[in-house]
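User: Some background: our group keeps a shared notebook of sequences we're curious about, and every so often someone picks one and asks for a predicted structure to add to the entry. Today it's my turn. The entry only has the sequence so far, pasted here. Could you supply the structure so I can complete it?
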Amino acid sequence: MAQETKREAPSVEVDDVFDPRKHDDLAKAVARLSPEQAAYFLAKLEAAVTKRKIQLTGYLVAMVVWLAGMIGALAYYGTHDGFVGWVFLVPFGLVGLLLWGFGRWSEKVAESIRITAGGAPAEKPAAEP
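Assistant: Of course. Here's the predicted structure to add to the notebook entry:
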C-alpha cells in the first residue's frame, strides 16, 4: 500500500499572532484568504493587538499607582494617631478602579475597530468551499 502524502496547510491558531516564530505560517495562511476574509481577519487582529496594548498599559499604570499609594498610606499611617489601618485599603481600591477602567476602555476600542466604515458591525465572511 502506498501512502498518500497530502500536503496540509499549516495550522494557524490565534496565539500564533503573538509568536514571532510562527509569523511565516500566518502570512501564508492570510495569503490564501479571499480579500473579504483577509480584511475581516486583519480587523480582528488589529482589535486584539490594540486591546492587549491597552490592557498592558493598564497593568503597568496600576502597579505604579499601587506602589505610590502604599508609600503614601505608610506615610499617612506614620503621621496620624488612632486607627488609620483603613488607609492601606485605598491603594487596592484605586488599582481595582484602574483595572476596571482600562478593561472597559480596551473593550470599547477593540469594538470600535471591529466596526466597518458603513457603521455596521463586521460580519464573518462565509467560508469558501
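Suggested note for the entry: Confidence is low (pLDDT under 50) at residues 4-8. The CA atoms of residues 62 and 98 lie 6 Å apart.
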